[in-house]
Amino acid sequence: MTDGGMAPFGFPGLPTRIEFGARSRYRLVEAADRAGIDRPLVLTTPRGALVLADIDSVIPVHACAVFEGSRVHVPAGTIEEAQAVARDARADGVIAIGGGSAIGLAKALAHYDGLPFVALPTTLAGSEMTSVWGETTDGHKRTARDEKVRPREVIYDPELLQSLSTELAVQSAINALAHVAEAAYAHNTSPLVQTLAHAGAEAISDGLEGILRTQRGALDRLLYGAMLAGMCLSSAAMCLHHKICHVIGGALDLPHAATHAIVLPHALALNLPGAPTAEHILASAFRSSLPEKRLHTLLAQSSAPVALAQLGAPRNSVLALAGRVVEELGDPPTNPVAVTDADIELLLGRAWEGASPER
Ligand code: NAD
């Protein structure tokens, strides 16, 4: 870097077209047309099927079949079931309506069968913006990157999230904030990713404060922040926080958003002292010099669990995973600060008991 200049960086680009705004769900038919889909299979859950019925009442969606069996962590058997439905119905594309589970299933069909898809997210998980896909076989979840699994179009309609409980909205928003925070301190971050992260953190902070006061527009801010967070996740490496959630969530079958929400304040307490730009971004977004404490308080105010113990995870089983987390960080470790098994054991112990995060 030259004095006062900037370090060189690259940016992978964003191939997905976005429609954002209340009632944008009614532009689904145009989106499917642009994606070249004539005979869509709708992948969703019983709740998402209600969204489809609502859209269909305004603009008929000529779905050739509807599969309501999307499941968390995309079990291989569910992929096979959905593939059989797609084959029987001669589907030439997919519309995914739901959270990371429905979108994850659409990604699997894009990977295996090349089916293009349009996504209508109903949570803040951010999967629709990334090329990461995964499947679970015999309890083992495997993830990989494939550019082919990105949706052609994403329709972000905040009205689709109105049915989320405050608890789930807050947990899912903190899941999105994890993408923002880790992208801001990843080894391959860039000024552009940090700008996205800053805007994402501000939108999520506004939305979190707003949703706890039932303010109008809070969901719009959260969904906008989640969209930016997904772009961050897509553009930089994941660090300690995501590794912890992947390891303990997979090994102990813990709920995704709830686990992220509990662990993030503790992971930030460990990482932010070694990541000044990310620390500045989060401190300014949360108007606090200790943003991890503000986050922990917001989670408690939503009445969501603040302790892994509340999710039913046995203390010994959680602590026993510390070594695997450190292994997953690789060599050299993909984290802004060096960590030992003992550091992670301490962190997991605090997260298990729901203690306030401490630096
Ligand atoms: P999810 O899709 O399983 O949804 C969580 C729960 O919320 C479910 O019970 C669902 O029925 C309910 N729900 C969804 N939308 C709702 C709404 N609008 N109102 C009320 N209830 C609603 O979970 P998730 O947290 O969205 O996503 C988690 C999954 O996504 C995990 O498998 C995770 O690994 C994956 N994920 C993948 C990526 C990626 O880049 N590949 C990124 C983030 C998450």
**Average pLDDT number:** 96
Distance between the termini: 31 Å
Written as H for each helix and E for each strand, in order along the chain, the element string is EHEHEHEHEEEEHHHHHHHHHH
Overall SS class? alpha/beta
Beta-strand residue fraction: 5-15%
> What is the global morphology?
globular
- Please provide the count of β strands: 8
Low-confidence stretches: none
Verbal overview:
This protein has 359 residues and is α/β, with parallel strands linked by helices. It has 14 helices and eight strands. It has helices at 28-34, 46-58, 76-88, 100-113, 166-185, 191-212, 218-235, 240-252, 256-271, 276-285, 291-301, 315-319, 322-328, 341-353; strands at 17-20, 40-43, 65-67, 93-98, 117-121, 132-137, 140-145, 153-156. Strands 1-8-5-4-2-3 form a six-stranded parallel sheet, with helices on both faces. It has a two-stranded antiparallel sheet with strand order 6-7. Helix 6 (191-212) runs antiparallel to helix 7 (218-235) and helix 8 runs antiparallel to helix 9. The chain is globular and about 55 Å long. It starts with 16 loop residues before the first strand and ends in a 6-residue tail after the last helix. The model has no long low-confidence stretch (mean pLDDT 96). The structure holds nicotinamide-adenine-dinucleotide. Nicotinamide-adenine-dinucleotide (NAD) is lined by residues 45, 47, 72-73, 98-101, 104, 122-123, 125-127, 130, 132-133, 160-161, 163-164, 168, 172, 233, 256-257.
Could you give a short description of this structure?
This protein has helices spanning 28-34, 46-58, 76-88, 100-113, 166-185, 191-212, 218-235, 240-252, 256-271, 276-285, 291-301, 315-319, 322-328, 341-353; strands spanning 17-20, 40-43, 65-67, 93-98, 117-121, 132-137, 140-145, 153-156. It is an alpha/beta fold and 359 residues long. It has a six-stranded parallel sheet, sandwiched between helices. The chain has a two-stranded antiparallel ribbon with strand order 6-7.
